[in-house]
Amino acid sequence: MPTSKPAYLLCLLALAPLAASAAPQPVALPQAVSAPAQGAATPAQLRELRSQQAQWQALPESERSRIRDAARRLAALPPEQQQSLRATFAAQDARFRDGWRLGPTLGAQFPKLEGLFGFLPVEQRDTALSVLRQLNADQLAQLTLIAQRTPPQERDTVRAAFLALAPADRDRWLHAHVVR
């Protein structure tokens, strides 16, 4: 399922400081999305940068490559269009913006998955992210339907059951829960 150009750009804006520094050929991004000058960062900013770096490194190389390509496209846009995209992104809810740090594939689906995966216990986060990244487009689409249909009081149970599945059992489980 192809992702639209704006979706790539939104993902880039969430990971821009890291995409620019991780690109094999540096992309000149405006100051508005770059890291604070060395020595000028507060402890909170440093923690945030470390978190962003860890999120960047956790992305599969194919996702990082897509983000680098988006960085190049963003840098090629006229400055006023870049600023417009940044303003649109900044105006979004923080949870929406943070969802894009999961990369282009999961970032595009995050608003639909948030019910099941937006508020995970710490001990489930790595497992959940690993499982979500293993899903193909059809499985991810089915899971978004389940996430949207699951009442709040059942989310923990449904999520735990899904995360406990062996990869070979996911298709059957997803299909059974979509047709309910």
Could you walk me through the main structural features you see in this protein, from its secondary elements to its overall organization?
Helix 1 packs across helix 3 and helix 8 crosses helix 10. Helix content is 70%, strand content 0%. The longest helix is centred in the first third of the chain and has 18 residues. About 10% of the residues have low confidence. The protein folds into two domains: 93 residues, no CATH class; 62 residues, no CATH class. The protein is an all-alpha fold and 180 residues long. It is globular and about 50 Å long. 26% of the residues are buried.
Quick summary:
With 180 residues, the protein is mainly α.
What's the SSE blueprint?
Elements: H1 5-22, H2 43-58, H3 61-76, H4 79-90, H5 94-99, H6 104-117, H7 122-134, H8 137-149, H9 155-163, H10 170-178
Helix pairs in contact: 1-3, 6-8, 8-10
Quaternary class: single chain
How many strands, what sense, and barrel or not for the largest sheet?
Answer: none
Secondary structural class? mainly alpha
Secondary-structure element series? HHHHHHHHHH
Question: What sort of overall outline do the alpha carbons produce when their principal axes are compared?
Answer: globular
Protein name: DUF3106 domain-containing protein
InterPro entries: DUF3106
Pfam family, one: DUF3106
Keywords: Signal
